Amino acid sequence: MEQFVAVALAHFLALLIPGVDFFLIVRTAAAHGWRLASGVCLGIAIANGVFIAAAFGGLSLVGNDVVLAVVELAGGLFLLWMGVAFWRARVSVPYDESGSARRTSWSRSFGLGLASGLLNPKNLLFYLSLAAATSSAATAARALYGVWMFTVVLVWDLLVAGLMGASRNRRALSAALPWITRVAAVVVAVFGAAAIVAAARILLG
After folding, report:
1. Distance CA 202, CA 198 (A)
2. What is the residue range of 13's domain?
3. CA-angle at 72, arms to 203 and 128, nearest 5°
4. Residue 177: inside a domain
5. 109 in a domain, yes or no?
6. Number of separate domains in the chain
7. Is the predicted pLDDT of residue 38 greater than 60, yes or no?
8. How far is Cα 55 from Cα 127, in angstroms, rounded to an integer?
9. Which long-range contacts (CB under 8 A, 24 or more apart) does 22-28 make?
């Protein structure tokens, strides 16, 4: 249960940090409204689902404890680096989306979201890191982690699309981002450090 809480917290806090996917959702919601932005959200969620299945499913096929420990060590180092990057990041949310927006469709929005998610290598590395850090969990538990993360990505993105269509909400989020970023940095870094320690214990006997 403690591991699930740690994974869920690290994953959700990482979602709060604006990245390419986030800004695509915000721009689409501001320019075209929630309906078309929902296509972007579904595309991003499916891309994340592909990476989740590949990371958790692939590592579950590895039976060598040393190999798993090496992957866990690499994943922990990546999460630690990500925590430091979050701490040093200076992120903001654009208040206004001025200018004429080109007409688009729901299917095009879905395709943009899918491409944005699949072409972001940090997504795959992040899920590989989480999968490696939970390599000791039972298969059923890891499957639960995967379903949970896919669901959270979809629900959170749809919520962002609904809220970020209004400029006042973008201003409020931008004001809170420094605090959110620092909290996320600490949690992700601690999770990564714990993975490094666990892997080192296996590798050093």
Report:
1. 7
2. 2-19+55-92+119-203
3. 160
4. yes
5. no
6. 1
7. yes
8. 6
9. 22/160, 23/94, 24/112, 24/113, 24/116, 25/113, 25/157, 25/160, 25/161, 25/164, 26/93, 26/94, 26/97, 26/160, 26/164, 26/170, 27/94, 27/97, 28/109, 28/112, 28/161
49 found inside a domain = no
* pTM for this predicted structure: 0.80
Residue 143 phi, psi dihedral angles, 5° rounding: -65, -40
CA–CA gap between residue 153 and residue 64 (Å, rounded): 31
Cα distances from 137 to residues 4, 60, 106, 143, 198, in angstroms, run 10, 10, 39, 10, 13
Q: Highest mean pLDDT range out of 43-52, 75-84, 135-144?
A: 43-52
CB 95 within 8 A of CB 174: yes
Q: Is residue 34 part of a domain?
A: no
Residue 127 structure tokens: 């899920």
What gap in Å lies between CA 159 and CA 147, rounded to an integer?
18
Q: Are 80 and 191 in contact (CB under 8 A)?
A: no
Decide if pLDDT at 100 tops 60. no
